[in-house]
Amino acid sequence: PHPQPERERMFHRGLGLNLTSGQYTAPISGYYTFTTTLRLVCREQRRKMESCRGKRLRVLICVQSQCQRNSNLETVFQLQSGSGLFTISVTGVLYLQAGQYASVFVDNAAGSPLTVQRGSDFSAVLLGV
Questions:
Q1: What does the record list as GO biological process (predicted)?
Q2: Does residue 10 lie in a domain region?
Q3: Integer Cα distance of 112 and 125 in angstroms
Q4: What three-state secondary structure class fits 9?
Q5: Can you give the residue range of the structural domain that contains 122?
Q6: What are the tens digits of pLDDT across the range 57-92?
């Protein structure tokens, strides 16, 4: 499930972004710069006494959902506090062929539920062919 941005407060130009699937599909082959900034809340699970502190999260932008290959951008974030709001960003350039898509993935090794907050974003801009 991908959060729906508030349409009246977002900038959206072009046909490649699908707000329902959370995927950007390249209209033409070329180099694209991708950026995502996720505002996340980690909620500790009281029953299991699990803390978010010290756990790591990976945020990736992957081509064709194949994050295990080299066609991705990635950052790793070490959680420093318990519950709370934190921000993770990933930026970089990927080559997409026409019709290929890119999307954001969160590898949650924290063991506690994460919630994506308003103010998170995902963008793609064609740099050149």
A1: negative regulation of gluconeogenesis; positive regulation of D-glucose import; positive regulation of insulin receptor signaling pathway
A2: no
A3: 33
A4: helix
A5: 19-43+52-128
A6: 889 999 998 888 767 899 888 776 555 788 899 999
